[in-house]
Amino acid sequence: MSRPPAPFHTVASSKMDYLTLIEHDVHPPIAFKSKAHLDAWVKSYDLICEPLGRRNAAKDVVLIHGKITPPFFDGGLFYGQIWVSINYRQYRNAIRFHVRNTEGNDKNIGIYDADHAVGRKRLQEIWPDAWVNLMLANSGINRSIGTMMEKIPLRILENQTEIHLNTESILKLLFKKTTKLSKEKISEYFSEAANSFIQEIDTSSNESAIYSFLMRENANNILYEIAKENSLLIKIEFPTKALIITSDTPPSAA
Asked: N or C: which end of the chain has fewer CB within 10 A?
């Protein structure tokens, strides 16, 4: 029996937020120490907080959306994510409500988990009033990755107030599971997930070549920093090709 189609817009849009932000040198947050810290970030980008139905947007769950303008980029990048209090128990109902509003129904949601971008139990132990990004993650991948990484302690500095997109979230969002996963191969899985970001240089014009080259380099740099956060991933290398542009010839990557 074939698998039902995914709630395409909700899942694809969520992934696209992170792909485009990272390619434009913005390492997006996935958890804040408190609602006040989340609100400060929202205000810094002039984003909109919208309640989900009758749910309490100040205490429980909120849809944050708008456009994030990266440094040195002429234009905004769309952002639309659900954030929940770490203490909010009805998060599954909240994301189901959001899917119904977005897709028109929630009949295909069963193949996904409503997943806290940072493990709920681990986060609650260090930040009891945290707010965290809520994602839809493929159930099989979500549980396999969670089992492998849930015991890895969070590395939080004393004055730290936010956590950015990390190894675990990258894998849950972008890795496509085909076989039983092994902890020894996390580096390989991460490299495969990293291929979701821009790889090829657009050589149709000098401007396009420079733009796509910078997007790839931005992604590689942030992914490398994410990889370094976990000793299992420290050996990952992202190949970089030199960009060659002259006034007489079309641009190319060597």
From this structure: N
**Cα separation, 42 vs 48, whole angstroms:** 7
**DSSP helix/strand/coil, 119:** coil
Tell me if residue 163 falls in helix, strand or coil: strand
Instruction: Calculate the CA dihedral of residues 50, 51, 53, 54 and round it to 10 degrees.
Output: -150
How many angstroms separate the CA atoms of 242 and 213, rounded?
A: 9
State the alpha helices, DSSP H only, in 167-254.
Answer: 167-174, 186-194, 206-228
**CA-angle at 170, arms to 208 and 184, nearest 5°:** 120
* pTM, full prediction: 0.85
**How far is Cα 114 from Cα 100, in angstroms, rounded to an integer?**
14
pLDDT digits (tens, 9 = 90+) for 10-43: 888 889 999 999 999 999 999 999 999 999 999 9
Query: Beta-carbon neighbour count of residue 112 at 10 Å?
Result: 20
> What residue type is assigned to position 210 of the chain?
I
**3 state SS of 51:** coil
Q: Where are the domains of the chain?
A: 8-253
Which burial class, exposed, middle or buried, applies to 229 when counting CB atoms under 10 A from its CB (0-12, 13-18, 19+)? middle
